[in-house]
Amino acid sequence: MYAEDSRIVDRRIVLLIATTASFLNPFMGSSVNIALPRIGREFGLDAILLGWVTTAYLLSAGVLLLPFGRLADIYGRKRIFLYGISVYTFSSLLCALAPSAGPLILFRVLQGIGGSMIFGTGVAILTSVFPPQERGKVLGLNVAAVYLGLSAGPFIGGVLTAQLGWRSVFLAIVPLGILEMGLILWKLKGEWAEAKGERFDGIGALLYGLMFLALIYGFSELPSRRGGLSLLAGLMGMVAFVLWETRVESPVLDIRLFQQNTVFAFSNLAALINYSATFAVSFLLSLYLQYIYGMDPQGAGLVLLVQPIVQAIFSPFAGRLSDRVEPRVVASLGLSLTVVGLFLLTGLRENTPLPMVLTGLVLLGLGFALFSSPNANAVMSSVERRLYGVASATLGTMRLTGQMLSMGTVMLIFALFLGREPITPERYGLFLVSARTAFVIFALLSIGAVFASLARGEVHREDRLAG
Fold it and tell me: Would you state the pLDDT for residue 346?
């Protein structure tokens, strides 16, 4: 096996590096959401183009996450992880210097490429180093770092945007990225590449990327004819990808994992549905609080801080609990709380009391915490070591695909109700109708996620303890 024995690796350093990286991505995403109205005003963007500032990042990350996960299994997870941090840091600097909307969206694509290298390797490195009986605890801490980033993002991003302008949000990432690169080069010893020597499936990666692009672009362009044709092309590409992957000797994604591994298949399905139903919530509430409530970015950030703080507090507990209780039980409870929180937000009006919004955010935060780390524990515990990178990347792909679908759903609703017009006071009523429609759809999707979570079956404890 091409890997330094995990017993001689300082696990605390590995945990610090992985959790720091897990903090950076959500910190950036939630900060940018707060800065979007300022970006829109400076560049004169309508609601749909404003959505592409977020969507461009998710799209590029989603296309490349699975191929980079496979490359990490073959050539080394630490190597791909370091490349990812480097690209992410450099592209953040470019975003801060963007002269107009076009270059900003382009640099967000580059940032997504770096993000895909990080998403596909961080959890895999943790799973490689820590024994199965500690996996839930460690993944819980990692998820807590994600939610800490989500917590800090709205507040710090709001302060930076209000005091120094939206470009400072991207500049804030640069020193953190440089620090992370230094830690990796100085302290992270060893390498993890259990699939070393296996061939990389370039054709499969290309088919996957084209399929993903066509599906997501088509969904975002609905209900136009162009969107329908792109969706059809994406579905045809999916068929071609599955056929190819079942025949190639060393696939970028082993389709048998979905056919023969119930825990893996339904855990990923639950993640896909959950993120499809939840990611755009902060985007919608950021616009709601600033346009309808008239809050500044700093005030909106403080309100949105509630949800990720709850997530950060309860995620380590949920991770430890999933080491003792079947992950599907804990995760399904979390998804049920998410359903309640989303249904509560379907009642948003111009005069909705702020405590009602805060209650919805608390329920969503608790639901996310109980779902995320137990679900990740189930996925990573259901595969052998040589597939840790692919498993981590697949789960990350479900997350990013779900986030893309979530944003695509909102953009489709905006296109139907608002058209390609800025959100002005005269159109606040239409914006509220759009937001309520989105929350109804998201709540119904979350009910489906509960059933997918319950259907996954049990994680075999003897397999997990065998490591």
Answer: 94
Q: What is the pTM of this model?
A: 0.77
Q: Are 350 and 292 a contacting pair, CB within 8 Å?
A: yes
- Cα dihedral 130/136/141/147 (nearest 10): 140
Number of domains in the chain: 2
Q: Give burial (CB, 10 Å; 0-12/13-18/19+) of 384.
A: exposed
Q: State the Cα–Cα distance between residues 200 and 268, nearest whole angstrom.
A: 23
Averaged in consecutive runs of 10 residues, what is the pLDDT profile of the chain (467 residues)?
Answer: 48 85 82 85 80 83 86 88 94 93 92 87 83 80 78 80 90 91 83 81 91 81 80 91 89 83 90 90 89 84 83 84 82 94 93 93 93 86 80 80 81 82 82 94 94 75 43
Measured in whole angstroms, the distance separating CA 382 from the mean position of its chain's CA atoms is 21
Does residue 118 belong to any structural domain of this protein? Answer: yes
What per-residue confidence (pLDDT) applies to 239?
Answer: 93
Cβ atoms of residues 38 and 161 within 8 Å: yes
| Residues 440/340, Cβ–Cβ less than 8 Å | no
Q: What is the pLDDT of residue 137?
A: 80
Instruction: Output the six-digit token pair for 113.
Output: 């490429």
Q: H helices within 222-296, ranges in order?
A: 225-247, 256-260, 262-278, 280-287
Q: Which tokens hold the place of 121? A: 């390797």
Taking the C-alpha atoms of residue 45 and residue 39, their distance in angstroms, rounded to an integer, is 8
Q: Both 10 and 48 in a single domain? A: yes
Identify the domain containing residue 417 by its residue range: 6-200+250-466
405 and 342: one domain?
yes
Q: Are 77 and 192 in contact (CB under 8 A)?
A: yes
Look at residues 44, 35, 43 and name the one whose alpha carbon lies nearest to residue 160.
35
Same domain, 148 and 23: yes
Question: 366 and 344 share a domain?
Answer: yes
Shared domain for 95 and 69, answered yes or no, is yes
Instruction: For CA atoms 134, 139, 140, 141, give the dihedral sign.
Output: positive
- 181, 214, 249 - which closes a domain: 249
Residues 210 and 280 both lie in one domain: no
